[in-house]
Design brief:
311 residues, alpha+beta, Phosphorylase Kinase, domain 1, 2 domains, three-stranded antiparallel sheet, 9 helices, binds adenosine-5'-diphosphate, binds magnesium ion
Length: 311
């Protein structure tokens, strides 16, 4: 059984790797070792997921995550997670690797073997919630999502992201991917190498954060009350560079292809007509958001460049 688990995982990972080999990193060696065993050393429950921490005999660690909600619609969260992580990895933003664990695949820490889950490589350091003075770069909450004036790249966010060079890149990524939930729990810091890492992309494709950012930039440009500090100008410059890289590499068609690729990998089951309609509707909604965000992102880059370029 254990050997079968590892054979299946290796096949899965090699397949993913061969399709996107120009983007994907080398597979974790430990997952290719068919004679090794994985054991759960801790399990937790979050609001939406079962999360298990597993390790092999060499104490290499991984995370297995599965939605509590077993409906086919809820499985789209797993697809968004691999989709968004893939994009971050491929343009060199600091995150772990995430792989789909399809239904039928039996691995330690996966509660329902007959459902989709994700496997995450371990992130170094610890959650920023443990820091003495952590950076707040969460761009919204479930409650504020519909109010563009309260979410996205506010003046305060610009100040916060200017505190470390990694942060502006992470904020740009979240802005393009429509991921409002970069809470302290979803941001790690490795003090040995002074680096921030993102985990948890399930809330990607939630809202057009580029549109919200344009809203704030237009107000800042009209008011002209508080000048940007040199650190803030550096942060905005780096934000624009990352956003530009994302716009260039991931226009809507590329994102749609990548999303569809992971969707097909997931072998998502539609149990009945209602499921099919709900899933198709949600996917259309994601794709419309991707297209709108792309348009807003290009406008945002122009707005910020005008703001930070001396007259
Ligand atoms: N790759 C990882 N490396 C280390 N810890 C992790 C990793 N992924 C998750 N965790 C831990 O598990 C918790 C829950 O995982 P997360 O992906 O944020 O789940 P949820 O989407 O339900 O919030 C995180 O806050 C973090 O402490
Ligand atoms: Mg989380």
């Amino acid at each position: 059984m254990i050997i079968r688990q590892f054979l299946l995982i290796s096949m899965l990972l090699l397949h993913v790797h061969s399709i996107f080999c120009s983007d994907l990193p080398i597979l974790p060696e430990s997952l290719e070792n068919k004679n090794d065993t994985m054991a759960v050393f801790q399990s937790i429950e979050t609001r939406l997921n079962y999360v298990s921490f597993i390790q092999n005999s060499a104490e290499e660690r991984f995370v297995v995550k599965q939605t509590k909600n077993g409906s086919p619609l809820a499985q789209l969260d797993h697809i968004k997670e691999v989709f968004a992580t893939h994009i971050a990895q491929s343009i060199g933003i600091f995150t772990n690797h995430v792989f789909l664990l399809p239904k039928g695949l039996d691995i330690a820490g996966k509660p329902d073997k007959e459902r989709l889950a994700t496997l995450h490589t371990w992130v170094p350091g610890c959650s920023t919630i443990k820091m003495f003075s952590p950076p707040f770069i969460r761009q919204g909450t479930r409650m504020t999502l519909s109010s563009y004036d309260k979410i996205g790249l506010t003046r305060k966010m610009i100040r916060n992201m200017s505190k470390h060079p990694d942060l502006s890149k992470i904020v740009a990524f979240d802005t393009y991917l429509g991921n409002y939930d970069r809470s302290l729990l979803n941001l790690f810091y490795d003090k040995k190498i002074d680096r921030f890492y993102m985990i948890d992309m399930e809330r990607a494709l939630s809202v057009n954060l580029c549109y919200a950012a344009c809203y704030h930039m237009e107000i800042i440009s009209k008011e002209k009350t508080i000048a940007f500090s040199p650190a803030e100008i550096n942060a905005l410059t780096s934000f624009c560079q990352t956003l530009h890289a994302l716009v260039e590499k991931y226009p809507p068609q590329e994102q749609n292809n990548l999303f569809d690729y992971y969707l097909s990998q997931s072998e998502l089951e539609r149990e009945n007509q209602l499921d099919t309609e709900a899933i198709n509707h949600k996917i259309e909604w994601y794709k419309a958001l991707i297209a709108d965000t792309y348009t807003s992102a290009k406008k945002l880059i122009t707005l910020i460049n005008t703001l930070i370029t001396p007259a």
